[in-house]
Amino acid sequence: MSGEKVNREAMYRVLKSLWFTKEEVNFVALNDGTILVKFGNIEDRTRMLNLTPWLFDQSLFPLFPFVKGQEMDDYEFNIMPFWIRIYNIPFEQMDREVAIDVGKAIGEVVAIDCHDKNGRWTEYIRIRVKIDVLRPLRRVVHLVGSEGTETVCTIKYERLPAFCYICGLIGDTTQKCNRKEEHLETNNLNFQYGSWLRPQLGGPTQARCNRRNGIAILEKKINPREETNGNKEGM
């Protein structure tokens, strides 16, 4: 998702190099600008969908399962799953119930990583949440304890694409933001958003984390059209 014109051939090459699929992947550009991705087998397709979001040149490449008979307008291309880290949660409150409650304040929780990089929850809780990328990024969540004490918990997004430090919208830029003039007129030199919304480099990669034990997938009703389709395509 980017307002700039994308070099599709370059994007195809980059994505193929990142995916390491067992069989060949083909890209078909449709008339409305949507790209149909044809995988060689179901295993490759499932793995790439599970590892979303994918980025090209710091922009989102939304990838969704193709559903036979579904109209293009019915796909929610603005809803994307991200692995999110929630920091500053009191240690005694680090449990599954709190992880789900905190995640619901951000979006739809689809998975919980039961351990951080040290083998247990200590520094942060890690959850996979579907968020609306057309809305400003959530920066914090407020957690209220049993005694009424409130904790401000910070959020960091793994694989976060380029976003605007003024409005917090993914795909927007600080240079072209509609609120730039308003921001300058108030002489406000402090941005509401920043690079601190990304985890520090050097931690475990998303692909490696997804292969570990400890990922709990929250059950969800399967779209029967997608389940019976059995195709190897995404879009």
UniProtKB/TrEMBL annotation:
Domain DUF4283, residue spans: 2-61
Pfam families assigned: DUF4283 (PF14111), zf-CCHC_4 (PF14392)
Organism domain of life: Eukaryota
Residue ranges of domain Zinc knuckle CX2CX4HX4C in the record: 131-178
Name used for this protein in its record: DUF4283 domain-containing protein
Source organism of the structure: Gossypium raimondii (Peruvian cotton)
